[in-house]
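From the thread on structure requests for the teaching lab: each student submitted one protein with a one-line request. Submission from student K.M.:

"Model ROK family protein from Pseudonocardia spirodelae, tokens only."
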Amino acid sequence: MAPRPPVTPARAPEVRRHNLALLLGALRDGPSSRAALSASTGLTRGTVAGLLDPLVAAGVLAEGEPDRGGVGRPGTPLGFAGSGPVVVAVSVEVDGLAALVTGLDGRVVRRARHRRVHRDRDPAEVFGRAARTARSLAAGTGRPLAGAGIAVPGPVRGSDAGAVLLQAPNLPRLDGCRPAEHAAALADVPLLVGNEASLGALAHLGQAEDFVYVSADVGIGGGIVVDGRVLPGARGVAGEVGHVVIERDGRPCGCGGTGCVEAYAGLTALLADAGLPDVAALRAAALAGDTAATGALARAGSALGTALASVVHVVDVGTVVLGGGYAGLGTWLVPAVHAEMDRRGLTAGARRSVLVSPHGRAATVTGTARAVADRALAEPDLLLAG
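Reply posted by the TA:
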């Protein structure tokens, strides 16, 4: 019998950090009294008070009005302070920048969107401007900044200041760069860098536990969520739904390959097929019953359903969420995606759910802000240090 590996006991600082993160995570769902937190976490009331009271003193948490509607001594709810730390997220898109500031509980404080075409711009210009935009938006709140996140249009290796943008098919001048090196305006706060679609998937954790998120901008991005976590993959490229091949010798794709679903169902391909300039015009034409518009949407939905049938067969999830530019086109895309996935399903009668994101293009910054807040709450001592 092989010897058992030695057991290393958790050190007191690690236990404290774990318990504090547990309590702060519970408060993300809404204010709660110390007694209720003790009951829900299994920690003693003294431990709860000892962990949270310093955060009240630091202005991270605040006490609300006592609840006098119950029996016995009224409890005083604790919640994240309205003047406490915020996080900021910025998404670099092919044709613009989106930025969002939220509290640690996810409450939206400020948001902005700027149109700016990035195709011919270098990393210093793109990410320098993104960082300045994010910093300016956060500074306008007058609240301390606990962390920042940059969502980028391509797969990423790593997630911190050393993260590398491996390839941006629609912004090739950004290939191989390290976004944080060009984000001087955010150099003094913890910085997270991630793929736009993978981060956008996090905005939908309340819709399903396991799902594939598919986001359309110029191309198609995606994220695979299992047990509430986004699968990153060994090289950071998991969830690249847009580059699932649906026709081996088909249309050329911006990634250098051929036959990728992005070349058939990405917004550029969809709009070209419909002969329309933008998503708003496409939606208006489809609502008016224009056959060119509805036909283009049906073909794009069929192509997307073909790709997604392969994806869900591999990862075995039951739900697909359509977001980004697809969100406003769900009326026409969902039936076509459903039909193709059902036709190609391996399990008879196992109909997949196809949902439409309630966030639209804002999903990326919403999910990025959540990821940054999660990181800050997992290291609560930094909140006290700030």
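TA comment: The mean pLDDT is 88. The longest strand covers residues 86-93.
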